[in-house]
Amino acid sequence: MTESTTETLLKTLHEEALQGEKAENGFKKKAWITARAALRDLYGIELEVSQLKSRWANLKKDYEIFTTIENNSGFGWDKEKEIPTAPDSVWDSYLKAYPEAEKFRYHGLLHFAVLDELCMNVSNWRVCSYLEPHISKYCRKRDVEEEEEEEEEEEKEGDINGKRYNGGAGSGVQRERKSAGKAIA
């Protein structure tokens, strides 16, 4: 598959997931049929569902490899290039143990934003950012509801000895997720 067809596959799977066509263990049959039809309609290509599932499996594998590097304590992050960084000695050592990670030494993961959302548990989705101009009402409504809940929680935080208490470093506040690859619009 080309980058264009991969992008279409991911956009379609994302929309299908938003419509409830994704379960914990993968996409439902309707999602695959819809993706197959989208590729046929846009590119005039006939692919079997098994081919789409194979491409998805490869994309998930790349995502897992990339996020493992990204979360490794020996690596930093180049915001401009959107790639993990480390001294050559760290990379060399890492690649001896994980040679499949070589492709991410100098290049980011294309389609990272949508892969990050699709590979996470759907109930944990935070933002449907990669589709921003075409974002569904479902995402907007969910984001507004989450913001309102966060504001309510902030208001409920109490004072301790006359000082505002926010739970400290271990209060469950998570660091913002790094974004890599190009967002799909």
Q: Any idea how many domains?
A: 1
Q: For the CA atoms, what is the radius of gyration?
A: 20 Å
Span between termini: 19 Å
Strand arrangement, largest sheet?
Answer: 1-2
Largest sheet: 2 strands, antiparallel
**Tally of contiguous helical segments:** 6
Low-confidence runs of at least 5 consecutive residues? 122-143, 159-185
Mean pLDDT: 76
Biased composition (Acidic residues): 145-157
Organism: Tuber magnatum
Protein name: Myb/SANT-like domain-containing protein
Domain Myb/SANT-like: 3-94
Descriptors:
185 residues, mainly alpha, two-stranded antiparallel ribbon, 8% strand, disordered C terminus, Myb/SANT-like_dom, Myb/SANT-like domain-containing protein
Secondary structure elements and their pairing?
Elements: H1 3-18, E1 22-23, E2 26-27, H2 29-43, H3 49-70, E3 76-78, E4 83-85, H4 88-97, H5 112-119, H6 137-156, E5 159-160, E6 163-164
Antiparallel strand pairs: 1-2, 3-4, 5-6
Helix pairs in contact: 1-2, 1-5
Gist?
With 185 residues, the chain is mostly helical. It has helices spanning 3-18, 29-43, 49-70, 88-97, 112-119, 137-156, and strands at 22-23, 26-27, 76-78, 83-85, 159-160, 163-164.
